[in-house]
Amino acid sequence: MIATGIDLGGTKIEVQLFGDDWAVAHRHRVPTPSDYDDLVTAIADQIRWADEIAGGAVPVGVGAAGLLHPVTGLALTANLPASGKPFQRDIETAIGRPITYVNDCRAMALSEAVFGVGQGQRTVVALILGTGIGGGIAVDGTILQGPTMTGGEFGHTAAPAHLVSKYSLPVVTCGCGRQGCTETYIAGPGMRRLAKALTGQDIEPPQIAARRTGDMAQVWSVWCEMTAELLHTLTMMVDPDLIVLGGGLSRIDGVVDGLTAAAQRAQIGDFGTAKLVLAQGGDTSGARGAAYAAWQAEGSQDG
């Protein structure tokens, strides 16, 4: 066994143990506790299970939503009982060795760049379109990470003012505390907010997608237009070889075609746009990306 990855979500903790070929050799899943101490214990138990299967300690990566403050080490999480806690340090204390903690969107970017649809590409951006909006950037098979540890929080960039004004969209407070974040318009709840603002109907994304050639045509068009502005920003800032889409909204039939056309309309003149593709790693991406990041970190320490 070469490394252990843990996909930590609001409802489940799944440990995946990877062999030398980076295929999943073993996996084990338990429910996510609602108490912080129980959460740390559950993760530590999962790591010990993996160590036993592996016949010894291997690098461990934990992929989870949220952020760790680079100075205090305290967690900021929306779906885990860990906010304000030294989450990584407490896990390390419980198992007696270091781990690598990776935002799950960054872990997906790394996994797709190294093992998935981004193989052979130098710069790969992952964009997660789900209940929230996040992502990550991998360059030469390594996560691009800076001193603030917030790189990849694409959903918390400002929404395009010209479109907010053009369609008389409401400006609301985001879960991050800022106002007018892109996420509040293009995440799942944001698509629902667009439908309410544009049609007066309170309708969920699957129904909007199903009716996008009928009475939800404008909602779909505006959602594509708003999302394309984020794609345009990523292209202008990073100019990636590939943008990999993941998350629940990426599974809407035809989303790549719709966003590709909208992104071209948003681009300057007749310059090209970054190629859009769907993630191919499925439920392995987060854990494998975290495991690979841990394997990389151990290699750099050994060096």
Automatic annotation (TrEMBL):
Signal peptide: none annotated. The keyword Transport does not apply. Transmembrane segments: none annotated. GO terms for molecular function: hexokinase activity. Keywords: Kinase, Transferase. PROSITE patterns: ROK. It comes from the Bacteria. Pfam families: ROK. Gene3D superfamilies: 3.30.420.40. This is Fructokinase/N-acetylglucosamine kinase. It comes from Aliiroseovarius sediminilitoris.
